[in-house]
């Protein structure tokens, strides 16, 4: 796969602080929850709420920084003044984006498992599996957010439009399930958000129906990454 | 006779004029013969950004080892042209190529041979100068410590500090060092010395001369006459997105027509010279008893013998400079627009 290691290092350096802070907070929270609440309760109470927001914040901030903000500020001119194809730039940034989300969710799963393992309730292997499935679901949800913001980032020359469009869609997706709870009039909103595909209850129950939802979430992310990448490779850059 | 040039020779088209007479002494910008195997070729490049912005039917070629100047004020289309050469934008019409490779389709291959200095210095955040240099070396996959150190010494740059805290001049030096450190054969330099102090500007001009003598092909966009005049073999003047003239620098430097500024001691001499037959008079001021004449170098003896019969208080050659040549193309519009705004 064509990635540029120097660019990957630089991208990591630019984003590692935010990644570290969000991952640490996420791990701390799931660790504490794992120690204090049974996994079933933690699943419903926690995974339905906060991690999606963390992932949204990370996707919007980093998605914008990976392309759009660099076009906006002009720093991408230095990247592209080297013998590197635009498609290589895209693949490198996507590898970082998806990889950092995967690492974040894996660490979150490990922290939750450790918390649960050392809790007074203990944790059996089925429960540990559930924790990893919940975080796998979280990863695919994050991937869909990341794809949407990244596509916007590839399309717009100005950060403010990327934040408005990409960030706006992700925020709407996060808000709709909450608004849907305000009564039957708003119930339809839960059908308009990808967050509905991350079914915590279904993942914790037996059966494999949830897996298809996660495949759809991952596919949304990958298609958005690809569409953004194609648009970026073909368009004029005001550098 | 005003010249619109500041101390550093920087362009300011808002003031200054050139007499109608002096313009007729301009060397003719004849159609340039095509260059065999040009290194840089721009052919009918058009990109219309609307509202008159963009570039329109821009064509020029730069041969191997040539330094080609691209002169024009901000917003004339210099950066847009370079953006196309770097493959950042696709032409609406026309074609751009470097080393016979299409700039849009094969940009990453071309850039192996190209050093680029962007007009705007926007360095990535959070890096020290040295980290930025290492990043660029890593991206390029090429590292030559000896050349790097030579460049750092030459431009007296200490790259240890954070780029964010660097002065504009130091950021520019860093960009210059990174553009040249890979020792590329072709250089696209967009206003490379703006922001450098005068001493560094001179050093940079010397450095470009050296690079030229090493066979490097350089496209230099600038609005500084001193820089362009000192190093460029040919100069294209761009105005409102169109090339209005392409001229050899030597033709301006060794122009065989000259303007002489003559002051007379008496009104009689002034009037007798004015009424007599002889060289073409382009300017006369009876109050100051001053005239300006235009002659070919061959006629200078004739002029001197005529002036020998008069009481002359002043006799100066007024050289045609690149500024004069440039302003010939640029001073019409401000006057016209002023004229229009009065109505």
Strand percentage of chain B: 25-35%
Helical content band of chain A: over 70%
Q: Unreliable segments of chain A (pLDDT under 50, ≥5 consecutive)?
A: none
How many E-type strands of chain B?
A: 14
Distance between the termini of chain B: 27 Å
**What's the pLDDT, averaged over the residues of chain B?**
83
* Weakly predicted, low-confidence segments of chain B: 1-24, 334-343
What does this structure look like?
The complex is a heterodimer of chains A (239) and B (343). Chain A is an all-alpha fold. Chain A has helices at residues 5-36, 39-47, 50-66, 68-73, 76-80, 86-117, 125-155, 159-180, 200-204, 209-234. Chain A is built from ten helices and no strands. In chain A, α6 (86-117) packs antiparallel against α7 (125-155) and α7 (125-155) runs parallel beside α10 (209-234). The relative contact order of chain A is 0.15. Chain B is α/β, with parallel strands linked by helices and 343 residues long. Chain B has helices spanning 20-23, 78-85, 107-110, 129-140, 145-154, 168-180, 198-213, 225-231, 249-253, 267-275, 300-307, 322-330, 332-341, and strands at residues 40-50, 53-62, 67-71, 93-98, 101-102, 114-117, 186-190, 217-222, 234-239, 242-248, 257-264, 280-285, 290-296, 312-318. In chain B, the strands form three sheets. A six-stranded mixed β-sheet of chain B has the order 6-7-8-3-9-10, sandwiched between helices. In chain B, strands 2-1-4-5 form a four-stranded antiparallel β-sheet. In chain B, α4 packs parallel to α6. Residues 1-24 and 334-343 of chain B have low confidence and may be disordered. Classes of the chains: A mainly alpha (239), B alpha/beta (343). At the A-B interface, α1 and α5 of A face α3, β6 and α4 of B.
